Amino acid sequence: MKTAHQPGSQPLEIPESIPNPAHEPRTLPTPTTKPVKAPEKVPEKV
Length: 46
Known about the structure:
Low-confidence stretches: none
Radius of gyration: 29 Å
Number of strands: 2
Distance between the termini: 75 Å
Order of helices and strands: EE
Structural class: mainly beta
Strand content: 5-15%
Largest sheet: 2 strands, antiparallel
């Protein structure tokens, strides 16, 4: 936290990062586990 001060006024506390009310944190979709498929055997051509 930084302090800004000008003579004749009260010290002002400035946070390191100013929160932006318009910016909403992005919600990540919950990963869904898909069932593992067994590989199908392809008949070999002779």
